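USER: Fancy drafting a protein?

ASSISTANT:
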Amino acid sequence: MNRITTLIATAAAAIALTGSASGEIINLSTPGTSMVLDATEGQPLRILYYGDKLSAVDLENLEASPLAHHEAYPVYGIYPQGEAALSVTHADGNRTTQTEVTGVSTEEKDGATVTTIAMRDKAYPMELKVNYKVRPGYDVIETWVDITNNEKGAITLNRFMSGYLPIRYGDVWLSSLYGSWANECELTEEPLTHGVKMIKNKDGLRNSHTAHGEVMFSLDGKPQENNGRVIGAALCYPGNYKLMVDTDDSDTHHFFAGINEENSEYHLKKGETFTTPELALTYSNEGLSGASRNFHKWGRDTRLHAGNKERKILLNSWEGVYFDINEDVMAGMMEDIASMGGELFVMDDGWFGDKYPRNVDNSSLGDWVVDTRKLPHGINGLLETAKKNGIKFGIWIEPEMTNTTSELYEKHPEYTIKAPNRDVVKGRGGTQLVLDMANPKVQDLVFTIVDTLMTKYPEIDYIKWDANAPVMEHGSQYLTSDNQSHLYIDYHKGFVKTLDRIRAAHPDVTIQACASGGGRANWGVLPWFDEFWTSDNNDALQRVYMQWGTSYFFPAIAMASHISASPNHQTFRRIPTKFRADVAMSGRLGLEMQPKDMNDEDRAICAQAIEDYKKIRPIVQMGDLYRLQSPFDKKGAASLMYVTPEKDDAVFFWWKTETFMNQQLARVPMAGLDPDKTYMVTELNCIDNDPLPYEGKTYSGKFLMANGLEMPLTYKVDYHKNTDFASRVLRLTEVK
């Protein structure tokens, strides 16, 4: 039957409309967007439109003026000149695939509507299911593919992307993230030109150091934060990925995203199904920040573990003492963070090892027993101390790793990733190895590490889960010789299985994804983790840049941001405590230092920051982000703000990023406020001798968004306290 089907993410499934001369036209509808597909039986699935929500009239006449008419999941073999999302070698060696739609179905699952378009190869019993998920109230569409082999023998998947999207050629700019250890999430903005733009990862475990599996496309020229049409895409996968834009001669930018197939061809047995990770797509006509707000809301509510539970303010021991852990020092740090108003203490690396004590980074991983020489009263003694100070306790582990100097490795060298006939390749400390999560015995081991810890010490509130090595050689001692190419994929299948078991047994413990810093900032791990460590670099000035890039796709609640010591341990830059606190407060606030090394004034500033952060925590962690002035634009300052959904409360952040004599900086207009509401201004973390001239004054949302407020370029402090840094945090509260 020829018809248009509008699929809206509500409990009511599908509404049949009239029209369509060519077959079954599907409109996937969210509150602000539409994706239109042509699912005519006997033909390839085609995508006709993705963008701003269509009216009934526009939808009815879309085919007369198609904005796109490409296969929604292009396959390789027939006319093989173009790039494809899927490439298969069939059991008889045929490398061509040709698909046709066989049916469309919808299912209500976990409050979402899943639309599945079933397809098959015209000549071979291979089935494809292209899936689209929409959720009520969210402008994000998730897509993924199921590939089922019903042939007589195994088939080989040479490429298996999660999704494809055609974008009309024009003045389209790509925003993407790149970097390295301690320099994560640097921003690149570039126009798309003819040729291929590729972003990929081959680390094996940590996929967000050197690049990110998320991008944004600005359709109206150079990206703007709060204006213009933007498409955002985020691959929800923890492993190796490939994002590719092929701009050919067809007036189209062809965007593909999925698992990186390099050295990962997958042999699919008869009757077996391969499921790709989800690709999340969003569209906004409110610029980059609008697309970010879509991802943040969707992510907090549907992907991030405990995404609507406020995160605690913590002190982490790493930069304070590194491996020099002992009972008295831990007790002192707990007392200090409690006295400043903190809520949680996390003991980092160095607490474990019996035969091989963990005093440096070259031993003991895998031997998760307390070193009673350092901690005579064990974990229970630390828990008791935490309780005495009225705070919670957390602990560091690195369960996917071992060292050649460890009891675990002595007993089970076969558990590690290692190529046959090669000497083992060692990482950090000259001894670190990666355990093979493709091996079910290793999965059991990793589950047992966490389960034993939480069962023995159920009062542990927080786990910092680290991963400080990549896959350093391609070889699995578990996988068969003909399936060595499955290593990268099967590692993460085993990783996810293990995380499922851990979360089923221990749903309430907060777990941070740390991976040499920001190596696991991705939506592929966050369903099991509450946050990620943004970077091992705590330099506040560089964090302005890194956290800006991170915020493109991830909300503040997931972004761990700590006040560190001065001089900074990575850059050796000296930054005043006020500036460090103002930067850390724009994410999930914490401390990373030895409090005993601070003077009374700096302790007081940190205590004030903690007190003020508790007041604005719901706004920062749950609010809508509006980025105002980018540090990457090199205008001398950076600014952003968070606003409640009701627009009755907001927090404005401003940081000066460079200092020159007699410099002139533009005033930054605000955004996201209600123009008809009146807001009272209160400065937080104030260190000035005199208040700002607008302290306690009221202004309309219209005025603040048209004009902003003047930010003093220096503090009004005693002469000897002057620095080259300046920052401000303002709270804007509705006056009713």
Observations:
- Confidence is low (pLDDT under 50) at residues 10-22.
